[in-house]
């Protein structure tokens, strides 16, 4: 079964224009560290309204109760984002959408 069918939010045009991406634990770890310490962001969302975002050390998330911003240490943030990325198999980082489809990670440049 292909994961993009499960995710439901990956249009065919996005899939056709995407390129292979090498996403592993090291990539995710370094990305989270950069988003914690420099002006970069990572955003993980479900197929709908809820999301978690880390930008320049600021952790923001939206759930059923509303939108919240918290300060957290790097170690718990690494755990949170690793789990979210592995659960949703997609994330946005610096103008690119990364998603898991047909057994491999893909990347697509988001339109401005």
Describe the structure.
By secondary structure, the chain is of the alpha+beta class. Helix content is 35%, strand content 36%. It has helices spanning 3-7, 12-17, 25-37, 74-88; strands at 19-20, 41-45, 51-55, 58-63, 66-71, 90-93, 96-101, 104-109. It has an eight-stranded antiparallel sheet. The longest helix has 15 residues, at 74-88. The protein is globular and about 35 Å long. The model is unreliable at 1-8 (pLDDT under 50).
List the defining traits of the structure above.
about 110 residues; alpha+beta; eight-stranded antiparallel sheet; 8 strands; disordered N terminus
What is the molecular shape? globular
Q: What is the number of helical segments per DSSP (H or I, 4+ residues)?
A: 4
Low-confidence stretches at least 5 residues in length (pLDDT < 50)?
1-8
- Strands ordered across the widest β-sheet: 1-8-7-6-2-3-4-5
Beta-strand portion reads: 35-45%
């Amino acid at each position: 079964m292909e994961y993009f069918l499960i995710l439901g939010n990956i249009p065919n045009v996005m899939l056709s224009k995407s390129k292979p991406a090498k996403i592993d634990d090291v990539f995710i770890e370094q990305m989270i560290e950069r988003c914690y310490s420099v002006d970069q962001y990572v955003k993980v969302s479900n197929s709908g309204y809820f999301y978690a975002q880390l930008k320049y050390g600021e952790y923001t998330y939206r759930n059923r109760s509303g939108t919240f911003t918290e300060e957290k240490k790097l170690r718990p943030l690494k755990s949170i984002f690793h789990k979210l990325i592995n659960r949703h198999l997609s994330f946005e980082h610096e103008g690119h959408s990364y998603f898991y489809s047909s057994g491999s990670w893909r990347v697509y440049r988001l339109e401005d």
